[in-house]
Known about the structure:
Order of helices and strands: HHEEEHHHEHEHEHEHEHEEHHHEEHEEEH
Radius of gyration: 22 Å
Shape: globular
Oligomer: single chain
Strand order of the largest sheet: 4-10-9-8-7-5-6
Amino acid sequence: MLHRAHNRFDAQELWQQDHDHFLHPFTHFDSFRKDGSLVLVEGEGCYVTDAHGKRYFDGIGGMWCVNAGYGRKEIAEAMAEQALQLCYTTTFVDVTNAPAARLAAKLAALAPGDLNHVTYATSGSCAVDTAIRLAHYCQARRGEKNRRYVISRKNSYHGSTYLGMTVGLRDGDQSEQFRYIPDLVHHLSAPYPYRRPEGMSLEAFSDFLVDEFAAKIEELGAGNIACFIAEPAQASGGVCIPPPGYLTRISELCTRHGILFIADEIVTAFGRLGHMFASQDEFGIIPDMIICAKGLTSGYIPLSAVIYSDAIHASISAPDADAWFTHGYTYSGHPVACAVALKNIEIIEREDLCGNAARVGDYLEKRLAELRSLPLVGDVRGRRLMMCVEYVKDKATREKLPDSCNISKRISNECEAKGLLVRPLGHLDVLSPPLIMTMAEVDFVVDTLRGAILKATEELTAEGVI
């Protein structure tokens, strides 16, 4: 039952306090100055409620993360119980706590292949930093200290620390107002099938991407490359599902040349594609490391982890009196966060939320595909509960609409008015709902989104844009 928490709040006061004092992640100052924030005060299941009492279906799942849904009493109780029993311990050097140890064992059991070792961080961004530092450390401990370069892809997103933003490369992220680390990271083309060269088949596109990686290895020298990092399915860069065979061939190149493969599963892990981890079950690869966050705790508390292989651990822990892994955070392996993750994973397994994500996600794919016939829709893509719609001015040429149309926000605003939250990203609207979504809720989401797209089409036609 909803608790009517919004009755306890002054909606205007909260809006003003937020407007005057909170610098939000990725703030667009002109629009924020005028419109401020949507103030959310309550969540239950797949729904959130704002300070005025209006209820919305959360098609964003918080931020790709509320996999088990809002208002889970079991998770709150696990959090409170652990906070009362032991709210914090350091995990530096040789101190641990029970939830951190149990969670590490559980993640090792769930991860593919020989990924049997875990190090913790507090966010996906920090875990990316950890994975890259671990890659550098491992290569150095193997006697290959020249292996420093990181290979990534355009259109990728790997967090908002300086290193994370340097590794990622979405349009607009590396703005001239920030300075980034030069020459450390080299970016390959994005596996973005919809915008592949005109007339190129998917198979030829996969060949092109693999050949490009091989050429980059030749250019830099394999002995200078530490790691390759990739989201198995690019998330914030446009929900790009790679062409068939691409990831397995990239993985083979990495193995052949001694390059560590880091799979950034911050979005895809813990059920979003219908699997606990997508690397092997969805894409047929076993990377050297998997980064996870978001769905690890279903967003109830910040926690992330890097799960890495026996081979890496053997290298970094080989006998050496002077060997120290001098990296970690105050809150690495925080007992309350780890207790939440254990309870969250228990719920995902007990309620077969991966299975539900597969069944309902397949239906979401099918229903969203119906939108392809609409004039503004250039592409509908994704996998299961990780989907997006890309809008274009001209379907034949794939020409984008002018930025001034603010097309994704225009459509998301209309959805919001109808009780649906979708995430606007440039010329895309993204969906990543909780894994507990039902078939009936899929129908509501798609029908509402269709109505919003049709309304935007009418407006843009009247404005002479299309």
